[in-house]
């Protein structure tokens, strides 16, 4: 069954763009994308030739200075943006700070967000509110989000695909009431970009951020990206007004003038080696249509849910409708943490999210239906044998 699904999979060839260890089922592409096969040679070229031989000249000759905009343009088709609406910079956390600060106005000082979204989003909003003193952060349950929007609301901040449940918001359906209230929307696409088809401009979205190291395969700690719709680009300003966001950084003028377009969202000098790895990660998407990627994510996660939902002790924490989820499936279990360690010991790599979730991320470019089958069978076996009782699987680790 899985074998015939893999044979019929129009994205099956994409797996060849990666280097994966033999005998492992990698179900954590939602936390760290796999190594692109082209990355080691590309990094070696950038280090040895561009850095080693080109030295300082490579800022111009190898185009280092334009890398953030060029990589942003490569991300744009994956998220329904124009090439000049996306730039690569900093981390998601820092980009959230920049865009939240920029979106506040003298009269609108409230940020509305969903209670229980990814903590960094809320931590950053809290820090910004503490810094400015007159900003209110409202963390609201889903059912009350729309009624919470009012004439004080500057920004509706939402994670498009929830990091735990994998539940996906209808972007257009939430952007419309935000606009009706006079607010901007800021979407965190960390678990969406590269996993499902996103269309920011079709939804009339205003602002967005996202991760480079998850489904975009940019490598551990890869730079993040941000999106500002064209209609806002002249007005919104970066509070981290560093020289790389200046209109003329090498004029060394005493006063700050923001660059036109997305370059103003840069602050300091870009991490060229990390950008080289992200470049290799984005190249794994060449020629692949976002709709095909989403269809594969839906098929993989549906197959997995069909195999695991009935296992005793398991509760599905992810929506059953593929259009209402991303590319990962979260399963609740009373012994989720030691079970996750047992799975890893049995060569199936998901991750654990407190308090009781095992997350299986099936990156559409690398995952096979056979992997889904192995993951489900291994999970069923470990639950049947009560693997969580083994003390070896009760280690405390910094990263789960
Ligand atoms: C992974 C993730 C982040 C990561 O933020 P960084 O500052 O880049 O580490 C932010 N938001 C969400 C929703 C995430 O899933």
UniProtKB/TrEMBL annotation:
It is an enzyme of class 3 (hydrolase). Pathway: Cofactor biosynthesis; NAD(+) biosynthesis; quinolinate from L-kynurenine: step 2/3; Amino-acid degradation; L-kynurenine degradation; L-alanine and anthranilate from L-kynurenine: step 1/1. It comes from the Bacteria. Keywords: Aminotransferase, Hydrolase, Pyridine nucleotide biosynthesis, Pyridoxal phosphate, Transferase. One of its GO terms (cellular component) is cytoplasm. Its EC number is 3.7.1.3. Its cofactor is pyridoxal 5'-phosphate. Pfam families: KYNU_C (PF22580). One of its GO terms (molecular function) is pyridoxal phosphate binding. It catalyses: 3-hydroxy-L-kynurenine + H2O = 3-hydroxyanthranilate + L-alanine + H(+); L-kynurenine + H2O = anthranilate + L-alanine + H(+). The keyword Transmembrane helix does not apply. Homodimer. Catalyzes the cleavage of L-kynurenine (L-Kyn) and L-3-hydroxykynurenine (L-3OHKyn) into anthranilic acid (AA) and 3-hydroxyanthranilic acid (3-OHAA), respectively. Belongs to the kynureninase family. This is Kynureninase.
